[in-house]
Amino acid sequence: MPEFRFTEHAGARLRYLDSGGDDLGAPVVFVPGFTCVADDYTEVLPVLGRRAVVVELRGHGHSHARSGPFDSDTLAGDVGAVVDDVTDGPVHVMTFSRGTPYALLWALANPDRVRSVSIGDYVPQEIALSDDIVTRLLEGRWRGTPVGERVDRAAGFATIRAARTQSLWEPLACRQPPLLVVRSPNAPIVDDAAWARYRADFPAAKLHEFVDSPHDIFRPDRGRYPRLVREHIDAADDAADGRSASATERRTIES
């Protein structure tokens, strides 16, 4: 059964959901969106087929930070703190929505530990938002419950106000990790221009459109995105194992 665990980073006590089980050499670290909590994903973790954890960033769910900081570098450090609590080896990075830039900032700073990347309906950017948009988000509902019960209001505003507009397209394209991207064409976040850029910048990426989904790509089928991630990470593991075997053979021949 999945269990909630805690770790600490930069003045925050961070909660994460851990499926347990065999990580097959590289667990999945999932960083979901701004209005998500780890509890949302208890039922989908088994679909990933290996040990997987869901990160609750500071100010979300039961992850607390009394006074911040809430900038993207600190939130990327939150991701790293959970990774380090789970393993000292490689991981598969999985994201959804606004969790994407924080996960990617960690991944770009730790490329040797990243086996693959899966992005759910977002672009490789940190995007600044206005207070009006944040107010609407925090006063709305997500998956049937008030967002105010999911995200601490002060922390939510602090997180968005600390955001800075920055592109991660270029550094991610330079790394070319095994990449899976899913988008909903019914949402404005990954528009046609961004989708075309994904195709151009990542020619080997696996790109999928969920034409019947809103921005919440876990609707109407909660397991569809995780099933694609499972196929993607299994292929990335096979490729990594192949590279390792080839390197061993070369060293044997050279010696």
In short:
It comes from Mycolicibacterium parafortuitum (Mycobacterium parafortuitum). One of its GO terms (molecular function) is catalytic activity. This protein has seven helices and 13 strands.
Structure report:
This protein has 255 residues and is of the alpha/beta class. The protein has one domain: Rossmann fold. Helix content is 36%, strand content 21%. The strands form three sheets. Strands 1, 2, 3, 4, 5, 6, 7, 12 and 13 form a nine-stranded mixed beta sheet that branches. A two-stranded antiparallel ribbon has the order 8-11. Helix 1 crosses helix 2 and helix 3 packs antiparallel against helix 4. The mean pLDDT is 95.
* Radius of gyration (Å): 18 Å
The top level CATH class name? Alpha Beta
Strand share of the residues?
15-25%
Shape assignment: globular
Order of helices and strands: EEEEEHEHEEHEEHEHEHEH
Based on the coordinates given, report the CATH architecture: 3-Layer(aba) Sandwich
Helical content (DSSP H or I, runs of 4+): 25-40%
The number of strands is: 13
- Can you tell me the residue ranges where pLDDT is under 50 for at least 5 consecutive residues? none
Organism: Mycolicibacterium parafortuitum
Pfam family, one: Abhydrolase_1
GO molecular function, one term: catalytic activity
Protein name: AB hydrolase-1 domain-containing protein
Considering the chains and any ligands shown, give keywords for the structure.
globular; alpha/beta; 9-stranded mixed β-sheet; 13 strands; Rossmann fold; catalytic activity; 255 residues; two-stranded antiparallel ribbon
